[in-house]
Amino acid sequence: MSMILFACVVRVRDGLPLSASTDFYHTQDFLVCRRQLKTLALRLAQYPGRGSAEGCDFNIHFSSLRDVACMAICSRQCPAAMAFCFLETVWWEFTASYDTTCIGLASRPYAFLEFDSTIQKVKWHFNHVSYVQMESSLEKIQEELEFQPPVVLTLEDTDVANGIMNGHTQIHLEPAPNFRMEPVTALGVLSLILNIMCAALNLIRGIHLAEHSLQVAHEEIGNILAFLIPFVACIFQDQPCHKMASRRCSR
């Protein structure tokens, strides 16, 4: 199995992916690690130039300088010196191909798709060249790591951050307030009775006038409405009065 499984170039300030190698691995653990890498890419501005996130089966290594960072998913057996040497090589290749203006103006993911082939070539080289052939470069990186060790994270840290970013924070539930109904007062009962009586009276008078007016002429429709409208108004007036009188809630 290859030491270096996946690599990408991202913009540090916002974690925008600029280019990435082809993904040939589709195991569940690897796909989870890919999601964790994306989460970590959004937080690169919080960390120093070099760092590693350690997991059970895979490690994520990142190396950033100015506004460009290179990230890689490696097997647990991959030496840290080899991973950071690979990331440094990719970083130099990318910054030599694109200037800072183009990088800063990139607005869509994988804007530098043509660089993917370069990442593939460098990845293949590090996965297939013997340690002896890279010994001098690895020794230099190893000395730098001993002098200034990379920050070490755990993949569980990225899981927690991902939950916060997606709004999956813990919610403390409080018991809902209890409401109780107060008994209807005598004034409320009287108001309800009077409104019912007024509505019934207007309805009876309106129906009686309608029977008479429709036989005489259509011009009397206005008189019918004069009684029916107060009837409807009484009905609507009764509802809020009844609510105000009978539903006084308290916590």
From TrEMBL:
Ranges where the Longin domain occurs: 8-119
Gene name as annotated: SEC22C
Membrane spanning residue stretches: none
Principal location: endoplasmic reticulum
Protein task: May be involved in vesicle transport between the ER and the Golgi complex.
Pfam families: Longin, SEC22a_C
GO cellular component, as recorded: endoplasmic reticulum membrane
SMART domains: Longin
Family: Belongs to the synaptobrevin family.
Entry-linked CDD domains: Longin (cd14824)
Protein name from the UniProt record: Vesicle-trafficking protein SEC22c
